[in-house]
Amino acid sequence: MATWLKSNRIQKLGGGVLERTGLALWSRLQLAGLGAHKDPAVVKMLRQIHRERRSLMSAFELFNVYGVARAQARRPGAFAEVGVYRGASAKLLCEVKGDKPLHLFDTFEGLPPATEHDRGVHRPGEFACSLDAVRAYLDGYENVHFHKGVFPESAVDVPEMSYAFAHFDVDLYEGTLACLEYFYPRMIPGGIILSHDYDLLAGVNKAFSEFFADKPEAIIEAPTTQCLVVKLAAA
Ligand SMILES: C[S@@+](CC[C@H](N)C(=O)[O-])C[C@H]1O[C@@H](n2cnc3c(N)ncnc32)[C@H](O)[C@@H]1O
Fold first, then answer.
1. Mutate which of 60, 64, 85 to test ligand 1's pocket (most atoms within 8 Å of Cβ)?
2. pLDDT for the residue 230
């Protein structure tokens, strides 16, 4: 585990103060920066999503979701997201996925119980939101499938398929590990896993470190809190 993650002060920032108070201002600054050199239509879309939906992701983080999704939309395989909350990052996936299937997993009743690996940062039920409200927000996009319940149990009835892009934003050790165990073997060669909070939340970091300890793929850290992994072809 990274040494800075041993600090509980950083953990608390990740779970509370930073996300709730600083993020809006931070994202506004980031959007101004993105506006200087990115496609104005994309920046407009990010601004709109920020206005419409309280997101726990910064503008740069949403941009990374957009960038990976846009690249992977050209590859075979479905898209998935675990950790939808009010649908901000899911809306981005919808905007770029074309006619690909998008599978969205969330309890829609907030976080499940944490373990000792999560350092008490979050409480059960935090980030509860209404499935109907998210459905309404994403109404009009084709081939979007909602799976309510605790992942991975909520995936039991999902037909077998390959994925080009899996986005995780579940905040907790057990959920992140379950996402990796489920999606890693189902990713296409060149498929991309992107996770929020990799270097902010100890549980997320631990799940990735443990899972990839015996895998050939490297965990690539972004300058945001995110990390990504590109699935290699089987040797
Ligand atoms: C930080 S929020 C996701 C934020 C969202 N990506 C956005 O764009 O604002 C975390 C979400 O993960 C969900 N979650 C966490 N663990 C889960 C699990 N094991 N199964 C299903 N949903 C889970 C919670 O219900 C919550 O809505």
1. 85
2. 98
pLDDT of residue 130: 96
Q: How far apart are the first and last CA of the chain?
A: 28
Closest ligand 1 atom to residue 81 Cα is 6
Predicted local distance difference test score (pLDDT) of residue 203: 96
In this prediction, the residues of the chain whose per-residue pLDDT falls under 70 are 1-21, 235
Query: What is residue 106's predicted lDDT score, i.e. its pLDDT?
Result: 98
Report if pTM > 0.90. yes
Residue 161: phi, psi to the nearest 5?
A: -160, 170
* Run of H or E including 105: strand 102-106
Pick the CATH number of 3-230 from 3.40.50.150, 3.20.20.80, 3.30.750.24, 3.10.129.10: 3.40.50.150
pLDDT, residue 10, reads 58
Ligand 1 in contact with 191 (CB < 6 A)?
no
Distance from Cα 189 to the centre of ligand 1, integer Å: 26
Residue ranges per structural domain of the chain: 3-230
Atom 6 of ligand 1, residue of closest alpha carbon: 84
Q: Is 127 in the pocket of ligand 1 (CB under 6 A)?
A: yes
Q: Identify the bridge partners of residue 103 per DSSP, sorted by sequence position.
A: 80, 145
